Amino acid sequence: MHNQPKFVPQRGTSFFADGRSARPQVVDTVARGQLQEDAYLYTGMIDGKEGDMMPFPLTATAMARGQERFNIYCTPCHSRVGNGDGMIVQRGYRPAGNFHTARLMSAPLGHFFSVMTHGYGAMPDYAAQLTVEDRWAVAAYIRALQLSQNAKRSDVPAGEAVQSLRNVASEEGLPATFAQPWVMPSTAVTGTPNGEDNGIPAAVNMGPAPAARTTGAAEPQKMQQTR
Ligand code: HEC
User: Of ligand 1's atoms, which has the minimum distance to the CA of residue 69?
Assistant: First the structure.
């Protein structure tokens, strides 16, 4: 195979008139699997503006997938509730977006898709980690998070009783402590979108961030002086 006529990458040739061995794609052909007929699915844009609907029907499975992917890829910076106070931010990263501001509460779904696809400011894109469908599932889950953090008593349909946690605990056979105030880890956050008190106890103090680790051969003495 070594000794046979072939085109070596990036080398020229006298065979084609333009002298290039690497050929341009044949006009009007599309590689298998790259047709992308549904423009909205791939761009989130309708007539140049971010659209506000799912490109495919939202199912419980897709929502669960969105939750799972969000918890893997987004919580380190945005936290489990999406207020932008994740562990990386607590350790000094630029504050990530808070999904519960008025602007993002009313942002169209396509905006979240677009941020994941192209990145946003200091945030890298997640196009390589999340498939197109996964990005939509995460966008839908962010919408659910927004609703969950902004729920009011009046959201429960009239006539339906709101059960106390104590009742839930005894019905489900859970320990009575289930109904007591929970101490949430700081990544689960205590803030509410409008800043009002939500009765959740303050976050556990995780203590100061650990000092930067020195790599094997580094001189500890010197490292300390520069800090
Ligand atoms: C490494 C940290 C990090 C991760 C992980 C991360 N983000 Fe962000 N995100 C940021 C930062 C920082 C900003 C604010 C960017 C700025 O203002 O420059 C931001 C902003 C945003 C915004 C707000 C955009 C706007 O219009 O203000 C959205 C939406 C968002 N991120 C979605 C996501 C989603 C969805 C994921 C998971 C797929 C994710 N982010 C993962 C750091 C992160």
Answer: 38
